[in-house]
């Protein structure tokens, strides 16, 4: 009697798990991680990011600062990536 009850519970659990998996698939969608769609969403394709690359942190220009000094600082930070157009478009889309 006890063995029949355990089998019945096991079957019920499997049915509930299957129902949950079906619900999750319906919520996520079938092609959630389709590689073709991911490539289409990229702004720039085939971007090679250097291994230890970090996006430079820029300070916001304040009108009390010297504009020439600020511009020189900006140019110095951009020298690393200024020649890689794809990298620029990837990290600075505007």
How would you characterize this protein structure?
This protein has 94 residues and is mainly α. Helix content is 56%, strand content 0%. The protein has four helices and no strands. It has helices spanning 2-28, 35-41, 67-78, 85-91. The model has no long low-confidence stretch (mean pLDDT 78).
The chain-level structural class is mainly alpha
Largest sheet: none
The shape is elongated
Number of helices: 4
How many β-strands, per DSSP? 0
Give the low-pLDDT segments: none
Radius of gyration: 27 Å
Rounded average pLDDT: 78
**What's the end-to-end separation, in Å?**
71 Å
Summarize the structure.
This protein has 94 residues and is an all-alpha fold. The protein is built from 4 helices and no strands.
Keywords:
about 90 residues; mainly alpha; 4 helices
Question: What is the strand and helix layout of this fold?
Answer:
Blueprint lengths: L1 H27 L6 H7 L25 H12 L6 H7 L3
């Amino acid at each position: 009697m006890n063995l029949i009850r355990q089998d019945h519970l096991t079957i019920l659990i499997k049915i509930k798990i299957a129902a949950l998996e079906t619900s999750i698939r319906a919520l996520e969608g079938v092609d959630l991680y389709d590689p073709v769609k991911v490539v289409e969403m990229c702004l720039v394709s085939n971007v090679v990011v250097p291994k230890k690359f970090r996006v430079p942190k820029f300070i916001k220009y304040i009108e009390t600062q010297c504009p020439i000094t600020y511009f020189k600082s900006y140019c110095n930070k951009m020298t690393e990536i200024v020649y890689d157009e794809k990298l620029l478009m990837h990290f600075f889309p505007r």
